[in-house]
Inverse folding.
C-alpha cells in the first residue's frame, strides 16, 4: 500500500492510481466525514486502515470498534449529533450490525452517515457470498454501488449528500473486485472535518418505543419515495449506450457492468446499456421506459437476482397486458401497520369494485367524535418500579443536563415526563455505544441506560469498546433481577436456569470490572441520597464508569408477597399535605392522582415503595401495611 | 365473518388476557371453534390493552371488523370509549366503573371525566350499557384482583354468549389457582346477579 499521507493532498483534479478502498478513504476526506468506525474484515479493511494512518493529521476520529454493531451504533450516534460519519465492514459484518441498522433507518440521521458493506463473491476470504443489496431492500435504505475506484470515491461523497438530504443512512456496497482493484481516480476538493456536534433531544424520532416507531415507519416510507426521485435522476443511473435497432437492452450494475461491456464489445452486439449505480431504490421510470424501447432485455449482475427480480416486477407494470395487484405499484394494501380484516376488506372492495359490507365512514365519523379529547394511555413504569427511583436519581445528579441514550426494556419508558430520562435507542446494547459517539462529539456528560438482561445480551462488547477507546461515559445498569418486560424470565444475573435449576450467578459489577472499568459501584435506587452521590462521583471519573442500580421489579415484589400471604404496603397522604404537588410533578407514578383537586394515592395500584415519601418536602406521606 | 365477537378492553394489569383465556377455554370445552387474540409485552405496563375473543364455526381471523362486536367488555371506562369502533347499536356494553387515571390527565392537572360524560359518548353507538361496580363486588368477593371474573359473571348473565355458565365455571377451575377458586366463583356470582337486575334496551 502506498503512503496513505498521499490521500491528504489538497490537489483537486490530481489523478492517482488508487485501490477501491483507498478511493473510499479519499472520499471520506473529500466529504468531510469526521468519524470513522470499523470492525476489520476483508475486503473492507483498507478503508479504515488508510484513515487510521492519517486520522490525527486529518482531524478525523477513527476507532476499531469491538464489533460491527458497536461500530454502526457509534457512527449513528455521532451522525445524530450532526457530525458526518462512516462505518465500514465486510458483508457478514453487516449481519452483526443488522439489529442496529434496521432501526437506524426509522430513526434517521442529521449528519451524513454512510455504512460500507464490502461483499465477497466467490468467497475469496469469507464463509459465504451473501448479496447485501437485500439489506437496502429490507431496511428501505438508499444503496450506491460503485463499479470502479473513481466511482468508489465519488459515491462516498454522494452517499453523504444523499444521506443528509434524506436524513437517512446510505449503504455503499462494494464487492471484492471493486474494493481490491486499482484504477485512476481524479481528486476533488478536501472538506475540513468537524468533530463538534450537538445533541438535540428528539424523542419522537429517536426513542423508538412502538408508539413512535409506527409513525417513523411511515416517515421512512416517505423518505424512500424521495429516494426514488433521486434515483430516477441520479447520474449514476444512466443509459451509457443506445442501440441502433432497439432489439437488445442490457441492464447491469457494480463490477458486473464492466464484464458486460467487454462481452458486448467482444461479441459485437448492437445493444443499449443501462448502467445502475444507485441500486436501491431503483429508478423505476427510467427502467420502465428502457424496457418499453427494447424487445429483449438482459440483466447482468453478480450473485442474487436482486435487480432482475425487481425489473421483472417493473416490467409487469409497464407491460399493458399484465396486471399485478398488491403492494407493488398501486398500494391496494398498506405497507405500514398491521394488516387487519378492515384493511383487507377495503383493499378487496377496491380491486373488485364492490360495496363495503358495513358503513365504515359512519363508524369512523362517530369514533372520531369519541376520540376527541380522549387522553392517551401509553405504557408507563408501574407504581413502585425501581427504575422510577433510578431515573429520579439520575435527574437529581445531573439536573437533566446530561445526554441519556437508553436501551430496549421497561426502562425505555423513562423518557416520558416528568422524569424525562432517555434520549433514544436503536437496539439491544445501543445505549452504551451510542453514549460513546455522543460523548465523543459533544463533550457532554453522557449516561447510557441499560437493564440487567440487556446488559448480558449486548452491552459487554460496547463496554469493552468504551474501555479500549477510553470513552468518558457512565453506564447506569438498571438491575431489577429479571428480564422484566417480557415476563420475568431469568438471565445470568439471576442464578436460575430456564429449567428452574439454581446456577452460577454472574455479577454485572464483576463483568464490568473484568472488562477493565475502573469505577464500578452498586447502589439501591430507593436510597436516593446515597445513590445520587455515587452517580455524581461516577460522572467525575475520567474514563468509563459503571453504576449498578439494584432493586427487584415491583411486579415480582408484589407477586412474591402475595404468594407468601404477606401484607402489601401502601403509601398514604397525611394531614400535613399542603397540596404542593411535588410528588405528582416529580415522579409520574400512576398511583398518584388528583381527586377533587387534591393529590391522592390509589390504593389498588400503590405497593408502598416509598419514593413519593422520600421526595415529599413536608413529610406528609407515610407507608403502612394493609391486608 | 360471522361468529360471536367479544372485545375486551382495559388497562394492563387488570387481568384482561386471563379473562379472554377463560372465555376461550369455555368455548373450547363445548367443542366450539374459537380465536383469542392477545397482545403481550409493552402494552401490559399500565398501557391500553385490547383482546378479541371470537367464537363460531367459520371464524378464522384473530380480530374482527369495526362495528361487529356482539359484546364489549370494558374493564375501564376511558378504555371502553377507545374500543367503541367495534360497537354498533346491537352491541351490548358491559363496563366496569373502576377508573384508572391516565398519567397524562394527572400531568395536565385534569380530573377524570364523569361517568355521565362517558355514557353519553357510548350512547352515540349503543344504548345497551350495563355498568358494573366491579371493584366493589370484587372486594366483596374477597379479592380486588377478581374484577375480571366479576365482569365475566355479568357477561354470562346476559345469556348472549353461546357458551353455558357451567363451561365458564369449568374454565375458571382450570385457570385460576386452587386457593383462589372460592373467591373467584363468588366474584362470578356477584357479577352475574348484578347484571341480571339490569334490563337491556332491545
Amino acid at each position: 500500500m502506498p503512503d496513505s499521507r498521499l490521500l491528504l493532498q489538497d490537489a483537486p483534479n490530481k489523478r492517482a492510481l488508487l485501490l477501491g478502498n483507498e478511493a473510499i478513504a479519499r472520499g471520506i476526506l473529500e466529504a468531510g466525514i469526521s468519524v470513522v468506525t470499523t470492525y476489520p474484515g476483508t475486503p473492507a479493511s483498507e478503508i479504515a486502515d488508510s484513515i487510521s494512518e492519517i486520522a490525527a493529521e486529518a482531524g478525523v476520529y477513527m476507532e476499531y470498534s469491538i464489533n460491527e454493531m458497536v461500530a454502526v451504533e457509534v457512527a449513528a450516534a455521532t451522525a445524530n449529533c450532526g457530525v458526518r460519519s462512516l462505518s465500514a465492514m465486510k458483508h457478514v459484518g453487516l449481519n452483526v450490525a443488522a439489529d442496529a441498522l434496521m432501526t437506524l433507518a426509522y430513526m434517521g440521521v442529521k449528519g451524513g452517515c454512510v455504512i460500507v458493506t464490502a461483499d465477497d463473491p466467490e468467497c475469496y476470504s469469507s464463509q459465504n457470498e451473501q448479496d447485501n443489496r437485500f439489506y437496502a431492500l429490507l431496511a428501505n435504505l438508499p444503496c450506491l454501488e460503485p463499479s470502479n475506484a473513481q466511482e468508489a470515491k465519488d459515491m462516498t461523497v454522494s452517499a453523504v449528500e444523499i444521506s443528509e438530504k434524506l436524513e437517512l443512512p446510505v449503504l455503499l456496497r462494494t464487492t471484492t473486485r471493486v474494493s481490491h482493484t486499482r484504477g485512476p481516480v481524479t481528486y476533488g476538493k478536501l472538506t475540513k472535518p468537524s468533530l463538534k456536534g450537538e445533541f438535540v433531544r428528539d424523542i419522537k424520532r429517536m426513542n423508538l418505543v412502538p408508539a413512535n416507531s409506527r409513525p417513523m415507519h411511515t416517515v421512512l416510507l416517505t423518505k424512500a419515495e424521495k429516494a426514488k426521485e433521486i434515483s430516477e435522476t441520479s447520474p449514476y443511473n444512466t443509459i451509457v449506450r443506445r442501440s441502433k435497432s432497439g432489439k437488445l437492452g442490457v441492464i447491469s450494475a457494480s463490477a458486473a457492468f464492466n464484464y458486460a461491456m467487454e462481452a458486448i464489445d467482444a461479441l459485437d452486439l448492437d445493444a443499449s446499456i443501462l448502467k445502475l449505480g444507485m441500486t436501491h431504490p431503483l429508478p423505476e421510470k427510467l427502467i420502465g421506459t428502457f424496457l418499453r424501447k427494447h424487445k429483449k432485455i438482459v440483466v447482468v449482475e453478480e450473485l442474487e437476482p436482486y435487480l432482475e427480480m425487481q425489473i421483472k416486477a417493473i416490467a409487469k407494470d409497464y407491460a399493458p397486458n399484465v396486471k399485478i395487484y398488491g403492494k407493488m405499484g398501486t398500494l391496494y394494501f398498506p405497507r405500514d401497520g398491521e394488516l387487519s380484516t378492515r384493511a383487507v376488506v377495503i383493499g378487496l372492495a377496491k380491486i373488485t369494485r364492490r360495496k363495503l359490507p358495513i358503513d365504515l365512514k359512519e363508524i369512523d365519523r362517530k369514533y372520531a367524535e369519541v376520540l376527541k379529547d380522549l387522553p392517551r394511555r401509553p405504557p408507563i413504569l408501574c407504581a413502585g418500579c425501581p427504575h422510577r427511583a433510578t431515573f429520579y436519581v439520575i435527574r437529581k445528579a445531573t439536573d437533566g443536563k446530561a445526554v441519556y441514550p437508553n436501551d430496549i426494556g421497561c426502562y425505555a419508558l423513562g423518557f416520558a415526563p416528568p422524569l424525562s430520562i432517555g434520549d433514544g435507542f436503536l437496539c439491544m446494547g445501543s445505549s452504551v455505544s451510542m453514549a460513546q459517539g455522543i460523548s465523543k462529539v459533544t463533550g457532554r456528560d453522557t449516561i447510557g441506560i441499560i437493564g440487567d438482561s440487556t446488559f448480558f445480551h449486548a452491552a459487554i462488547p460496547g463496554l469493552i469498546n468504551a474501555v479500549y477507546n477510553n470513552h468518558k461515559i457512565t453506564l447506569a445498569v438498571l438491575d431489577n433481577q429479571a428480564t422484566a418486560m417480557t415476563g420475568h424470565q431469568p438471565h445470568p444475573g439471576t442464578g436460575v436456569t430456564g429449567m428452574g435449576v439454581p446456577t452460577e450467578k454472574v455479577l454485572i459489577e464483576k463483568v464490568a470490572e473484568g472488562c477493565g472499568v475502573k469505577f464500578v459501584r452498586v447502589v439501591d435506587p430507593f436510597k436516593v441520597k446515597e445513590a445520587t452521590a455515587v452517580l455524581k462521583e461516577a460522572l467525575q471519573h475520567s474514563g468509563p464508569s459503571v453504576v449498578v442500580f439494584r432493586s427487584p421489579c415491583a411486579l415480582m415484589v408484589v407477586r412474591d408477597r402475595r404468594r407468601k400471604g404477606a401484607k402489601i404496603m401502601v403509601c398514604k397522604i397525611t394531614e400535613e399535605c399542603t397540596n404542593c404537588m411535588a410528588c405528582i410533578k416529580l415522579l409520574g407514578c400512576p398511583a398518584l392522582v388528583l381527586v377533587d383537586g387534591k393529590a391522592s394515592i390509589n390504593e389498588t395500584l400503590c405497593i408502598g415503595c416509598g419514593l413519593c415519601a422520600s421526595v415529599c418536602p413536608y413529610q406528609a406521606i407515610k407507608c403502612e401495611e394493609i391486608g | 365473518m360471522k361468529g360471536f365477537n367479544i372485545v375486551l378492553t382495559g388497562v394492563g394489569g387488570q387481568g384482561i388476557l386471563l379473562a379472554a383465556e377463560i372465555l376461550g377455554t369455555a368455548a373450547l370445552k363445548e367443542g366450539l371453534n374459537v380465536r383469542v387474540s392477545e397482545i403481550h409485552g409493552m402494552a401490559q405496563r399500565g398501557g391500553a390493552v385490547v383482546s378479541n375473543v371470537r367464537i363460531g364455526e367459520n371464524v378464522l381471523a384473530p380480530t374482527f371488523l369495526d362495528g361487529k362486536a356482539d359484546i364489549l367488555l370494558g374493564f375501564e371506562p376511558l378504555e371502553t370509549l377507545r374500543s367503541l369502533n367495534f360497537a354498533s347499536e346491537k352491541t351490548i356494553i358491559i363496563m366496569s366503573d373502576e377508573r384508572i387515571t391516565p398519567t397524562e390527565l394527572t400531568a395536565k392537572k385534569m380530573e377524570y371525566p364523569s361517568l355521565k360524560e362517558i355514557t353519553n359518548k357510548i350512547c352515540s353507538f349503543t344504548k345497551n350499557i350495563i355498568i358494573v361496580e366491579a371493584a366493589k363486588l370484587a372486594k366483596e368477593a374477597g379479592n380486588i384482583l377478581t374484577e375480571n371474573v366479576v365482569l365475566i359473571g355479568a357477561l354470562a348473565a346476559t345469556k348472549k354468549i353461546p357458551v353455558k355458565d357451567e363451561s365458564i365455571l369449568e374454565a375458571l377451575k382450570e385457570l385460576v389457582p386452587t386457593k383462589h377458586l372460592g373467591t373467584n366463583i363468588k366474584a362470578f356470582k356477584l357479577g352475574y346477579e348484578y347484571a341480571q337486575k339490569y334490563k337491556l334496551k332491545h
The mean pLDDT of chain B is 93. Chain B touches chain A through 44 residues (CB under 8 Å). Residues 178-196 of chain B form the longest helix (19 residues). Chain B is about 40% helix and 15% strand.
